Amino acid sequence: MPNQPFYAQGLRFSCVRCSVCCRYESGFVFLSEKDVLVLAKAVQMGYNDFIETYCRWVPTAFGAARLSLKETPEYDCIFWKAGCLVYQARPLQCRAFPFWKSILASSNAWKSASASCPGMGKGTLFMRDEIESWLHAQTADPVITKKI
Ligand code: SF4
Fold first, then answer.
1. C-alpha span between 128 and 130 (Å, rounded)
2. Is 80 in the pocket of ligand 1 (CB under 6 A)?
3. Which of 94, 100, 117 for mutating ligand 1's site (highest number of atoms within 8 Å of CB)?
4. In the chain, how many H helices and how many E strands?
5. pTM
6. pLDDT > 70? residue 136
7. Alpha helices, DSSP H, located in the chain
8. Ligand 1 site, residue 143, Cβ cutoff 6 A
9. pLDDT (tens digit per residue) in 41-56
10. What's the average model confidence in pLDDT over 103-113?
11. How far, in Å, is the centroid of ligand 1 from the Cα of 22?
């Protein structure tokens, strides 16, 4: 059918807890206001102290910067230690994986991301409406950005 996204019949994903998306390579875990509030509460810190302790600003190409969690010198997420230390409070970006706009942009983008995630394409079938509800959640809860 024309104008159907490649995931119209759903996509399979089950996390195999390999931790590859949380560690080993440099990357960003971008945060929304809600993410910071929930995480700060989880680690019993104030909002600004949390940002100062656990976050970094990542410059964009447009004279702005986006807020991300820090990573360790080994490129693990600051909250990874034999598993996610804040799993119940983990950011939307982590909860929504692999249903990110960039990964759902095309079947090639999905295939490319699948190459480094053994859980993609297997396990639980997520229907189109569930997939799109993750996309909407990310649009509704944007990443914190500031001008630099
Ligand atoms: S917050 Fe937790 S789930 Fe998200 S990248 Fe860090 S360790 Fe992984």
1. 5
2. yes
3. 94
4. 5, 5
5. 0.94
6. yes
7. 33-42, 47-54, 92-96, 107-114, 128-140
8. no
9. 999 999 999 999 999 9
10. 97
11. 5
58 — phi, psi (to 5°)?
A: -110, 115
CB 42 within 8 A of CB 86: yes
Confidence of residue 2 (pLDDT cuts 50, 70, 90): low
The residue extents of the domains of the chain are: 11-147
Measured CA to CA in angstroms, residue 123 lies from 14, 21, 85, 147 at distances of 5, 18, 25, 42
Only one residue has tokens 């996309």, namely: 135
Q: pLDDT value at position 20?
A: 92
- The mean pLDDT value for 107-113 works out to 97
Q: How many CA atoms lie within 13 A of 116 on its CB side?
A: 13
